[in-house]
Amino acid sequence: MKHTKVKDLLNSTTTLQEVNAKGWVRTFRNNQFIALNDGSTINNIQCVVDFENTPEETLKRITTGASVSVIGTLVESKGAGQKYEIQVSKLEILGDSDAEKFPMQPKKHSLEFLRENAHLRVRTNAFGAIMRVRSVLSYAVHKYFQDKGFVYVNTPIITGADAEGAGEMFQVTSLPLDNLPKNEEGNIDFKQDFFGKHTNLTVSGQLEGETFAMALGQIYTFGPTFRAENSNTSRHLAEFWMIEPEVAFNDLDDNMDLAEDFIQYVIKYALDNCGDDLKFLEGRLLEEEKSKPQADRSEMSLLEKLNFVLENNFKRVSYTEAIDILRDSTPNKKKKFSYLINEWGADLQSEHERYLVEKHFKCPVILYDYPANIKAFYMRLNDNTEPGRETVRAMDILFPGIGEIVGGSEREERYDVLVQKMEALGIDKEELYWYLDTRRFGSATHAGFGLGFERLVLFVTGMTNIRDVIPFPRTPGSAEF
Ligand code: ATP
Ligand code: MG
Ligand code: MG
Ligand code: MG
């Protein structure tokens, strides 16, 4: 007989004579009650074993983590919190799990311990929920853009474009590492490489994405990006997924509208389609909050926080206004920021971003018009800015608990201005001839942004460390899987 998913059994509209469920044992109580989970939902189905007619040997093998198949009747449950349970008539152990050795016993594990067991942590309630929410969010990303007629573009992962991520690139070579061929100057001869030049893992698909936007109009990428982030923060991974829409004829305001609408859409989609998982994660968070001193507890629950983002416009603030606010602020009664901002032109650190969002405006913030010298070369220079105070049409979206979640801009569409900028920064024009071609042939205003998918998942699940929202985190010193 075909088995039915636990989710469908729990959502059944009637009791049923004979059903088959397969899954993994979460707990086995009183030699009688199996809490069975198959990953289709956060909820377990209770399977009531006829222990008098089940051999002792079999009962002993019903341990946490074991996979089992049960056949029985779906009946109304007398137990609290569940509509149905299975009265088991036939039970088969599919795969044993040594209870002594199985690391995922149903007790509270530290997140650090779970990270070391990334291949097994998904068997816990919390990680099952996080990974289902992540999956629904990625579907929502595609749905949003596809419904709007955007074209999905796969930009290259191995790329020669290295204009952006100075110092953060993973190098790619097909040459044997123990015997790298050298040229006459004694440097590694990449001409002998499979690709015939120096290549890297991509840090962003934007530059290639722009070339497609300038033909297809509206495009988006959604793929892995790599940055050799040699620091341990709770918001950076060496391998993360980025969503990068790019739209021809959009300016900075259109870009802000698109980003805000997109973020609200995907959060709403998760609320509508991951209700049980989000409620579970909310409960987990409430438990965690209880162990904190009253003053440090969050004012809003997870679902309140998500709904707040849907119901409130993001506050749009220029960099210059933000600096004025930060210069005069003391985040705690006495303590100043560890990095003080006294001068216009300084880059914001995450403590400033979070202060603006969490303490000052108390809502998501879109910061725009940043000083040109702290932003990338391709951003559109604002007209009429004071000499020495040039700004670009850049925007960063800042979220509570996270800081930067989006970085974007209107792009410099003027060939001459772009070339001047590249020359001033020593960026090789020959190498980026293909990028400059978009400005040589039918250039136009265009804009886009990059959203770090894991930072979005972090916000939606209420987790606090980015390592806990990606299946297999890549951070300095951890890539054993
Ligand atoms: P940050 O200031 O946090 O280091 P960034 O300004 O270097 O981010 P961008 O180059 O603007 O990042 O990339 C666009 C988005 O990608 C960011 O807004 C963020 O959401 C995400 N992102 C950047 N670096 C990482 C990383 N190492 N791990 C996870 N997400 C990242
Ligand atoms: Mg960075
Ligand atoms: Mg940044
Ligand atoms: Mg950025």
Automatic annotation (TrEMBL):
<protein>
    <recommendedName>
        <fullName>Asparagine--tRNA ligase</fullName>
        <ecNumber>6.1.1.22</ecNumber>
    </recommendedName>
</protein>
<keyword id="KW-0067">ATP-binding</keyword>
<dbReference type="InterPro" id="IPR004365">
    <property type="entry name" value="NA-bd_OB_tRNA"/>
</dbReference>
<dbReference type="InterPro" id="IPR002312">
    <property type="entry name" value="Asp/Asn-tRNA-synth_IIb"/>
</dbReference>
<dbReference type="InterPro" id="IPR006195">
    <property type="entry name" value="aa-tRNA-synth_II"/>
</dbReference>
<keyword id="KW-0648">Protein biosynthesis</keyword>
<keyword id="KW-0030">Aminoacyl-tRNA synthetase</keyword>
<feature type="domain" description="Aminoacyl-transfer RNA synthetases class-II family profile">
    <location>
        <begin position="131"/>
        <end position="471"/>
    </location>
</feature>
<dbReference type="Pfam" id="PF00152">
    <property type="entry name" value="tRNA-synt_2"/>
</dbReference>
<dbReference type="InterPro" id="IPR004522">
    <property type="entry name" value="Asn-tRNA-ligase"/>
</dbReference>
<dbReference type="Pfam" id="PF01336">
    <property type="entry name" value="tRNA_anti-codon"/>
</dbReference>
<comment type="subunit">
    <text>Homodimer.</text>
</comment>
<dbReference type="GO" id="GO:0016874">
    <property type="term" value="F:ligase activity"/>
</dbReference>
<comment type="similarity">
    <text>Belongs to the class-II aminoacyl-tRNA synthetase family.</text>
</comment>
<keyword id="KW-0963">Cytoplasm</keyword>
<keyword id="KW-0436">Ligase</keyword>
<dbReference type="InterPro" id="IPR012340">
    <property type="entry name" value="NA-bd_OB-fold"/>
</dbReference>
<dbReference type="InterPro" id="IPR004364">
    <property type="entry name" value="Aa-tRNA-synt_II"/>
</dbReference>
<dbReference type="InterPro" id="IPR045864">
    <property type="entry name" value="aa-tRNA-synth_II/BPL/LPL"/>
</dbReference>
<keyword id="KW-0547">Nucleotide-binding</keyword>
